[in-house]
Amino acid sequence: MKTLRVGMISFAHGHAFSYFNHLAQSPEVSIIGIAEEDRNRVAAIVEQHSIPYYANYQDLLAQDIDAVIICSENVHHAKLVFAAAQAKKHVLCEKPLGTTMEEMEAMIAACKENGVQLMTAFPCRYLAAVVRAKEAIDRGDIGDIVAIKGTNHGGNPGGWFINKDLSGGGAVLDHTVHVMDLMNWFLQSKVKEVYAYGATLFREELEVEDAGMVHVKFENGVFAVLDTSWSRPKSFPTWGDVTMEIVGTKGVISVDGFAQKNDLYRNSLGKGVYSFWGDDMDAYMMRDFVKALLHNEQVPVTGEDGLKATEVALLAYESIKRGQPVAL
């Protein structure tokens, strides 16, 4: 059986551990090595799984591998994708794809020039509720879409996420892209205008915003609003949510991406706990990435998809700065 030889670069983003676990369980994948400047981040899994460790990502890229998974701080995505492309390695890059339009366009171009594929990590496309909604929309069950109201709330992730020099932005950048990608996927229409609000409402000492509202108009006439924030307190059972109300001419679809759960309440923990029993979106995303590369197929979520979703967040910052709508 043919296997995909994969390397992982940086575990700065917590999603890397989930991706690693799914890759390690796949009979179609061989994890060749992990590159991470901070060895403490990966010491446990390197030792447990006897995987070669590299302090320098260039040393990993020099190995006989087919693809890399990049989960670094946001501002390092571009340089790591450039390096991987030049080494002729396919790439799955954590969201947001980049922090500027120029670097994202250059990342996409570099991968194309070197004959490798670039996939953006948007696992929310694999949530059961999202998949069923997409199928219903494509069947025309609710007629033509008129408007979408979405949310991506969460708790403040702390760490490098609240350091603008490493993250590139706060909640607006962090939490716009997932649901914006879903809206783009559903509508297949270009964004023509963005109007946004952003502020620091929950932790005044932050240098980045922890709350935002992003309003979007599409070329096909649909308008959307997205509540993107780090508004959930420490006592909240989970990191956040992904919800949408999709209003059509013949009906409405309500999407709650993480509703497949049991609620557990324990005094010893001081808060409720969500016990999620639904399909694992990360597992499906990693499966499709591996499958596409092994069979020489197009990856299902491209670098262009990552750019289009991130562009809305960047335009939101411009709108916040100007205090008025920004047109493309």
From TrEMBL:
Record Gene3D superfamilies: Dihydrodipicolinate Reductase, domain 2 (3.30.360.10), NAD(P)-binding Rossmann-like Domain (3.40.50.720)
Domain annotation GFO/IDH/MocA-like oxidoreductase: ranges: 131-253
Entry superkingdom: Bacteria
Domain Gfo/Idh/MocA-like oxidoreductase N-terminal intervals: 20-121
Tell me any Pfam family this protein matches.
Answer: GFO_IDH_MocA_C3
Protein name according to UniProt: Dehydrogenase
Its taxonomic placement starts with:
Bacteria, Bacillati, Bacillota, Bacilli, Bacillales
